[in-house]
Amino acid sequence: MDIRHLEYFLEVARNQSFTKAAEKLYITQPTISKTIRNMEDEWGVTLFYRQGKRIELTDAGHIMYQQAQQMVDSFQRVSAELEDLMNLKRGHLRIGLPPMVGSSFFPEVIGQFHQEYPKITIQLIEDGAKKVEADVVSGQTDIGVAVLPVNEDVFHYYSFVKEKLNLLVHPSHRLAGRDHVNLNELAEEAFVLFREDFTLHDRIIRECISAGFEPRVVYESSQWDLISGMVAANLGIALLPETICKEIDSSRVTILPLDNPVIPWQLGMIWRKDRYLSFAVREWISFTRGLLGERG
Q1: What would the mean pLDDT of 139-148 be, rounded to a whole number?
Q2: What are the residues whose beta carbons fall under 8 Å from the beta carbon of 292, sequence distance 6 or more?
Q3: Is the pTM above the cut of 0.70?
Q4: Which residues are paired to 37 by β-bridges?
């Protein structure tokens, strides 16, 4: 058994699927299935319960998962340190990025970073902020952008955006002529939200419940432009950050300040406290902190 076998096992466990794991690893499903069988034969244990297409870790599988994660982390740390020693100013950077953040902040940042460090390659992995946090913890990504606050026992971070959410309504909506709107005035409205893997999904629901009502969610999406398009089609209302609202065609929707309460939206660059940082990651942190500035 070598380190690749442990990586295959971890990917199957994360995805609860041989097929999905094989796709992410760019190998065939028979290859990954054979590897897992060989591991089970070698250790004399069953690692997964197999129920049709769905699989789950056994008790032995859970033990293997914890140990395998530590071994893979250690191997990656050694590899990164040796790569830094042998290949100064080279490297590969895996960045987790929520879709609604990327287009607003990062094309120019990445372009300037590439000019400064042309030998560092960058892989962008777009997911909701919850998944970004989980991927930084698991080592799937080196660094990520998340909605603050995050668990300070797990992450180092710096803040670079501090804004609030605005209300989007159709121009014919009863509230469209107002200067501002209180959250509790939206109790009877149909909401268009981001999906559950986005931090804003839970935050908006939590704020609504604190205001005395549970929002009626009619649509969910991972794309802010689709959400604003649904509002423009008069299918519901939405709450989006100020930066995103600047990208929206104001002739199609009406954008209003939301008060009482103001719902904050703060972004931060996050990385794990207990993990070795490669040259590429260290330079990205330093470069972007200086370029974006630490706000909030």
Answers
A1: 92
A2: 105, 109, 160
A3: no
A4: none
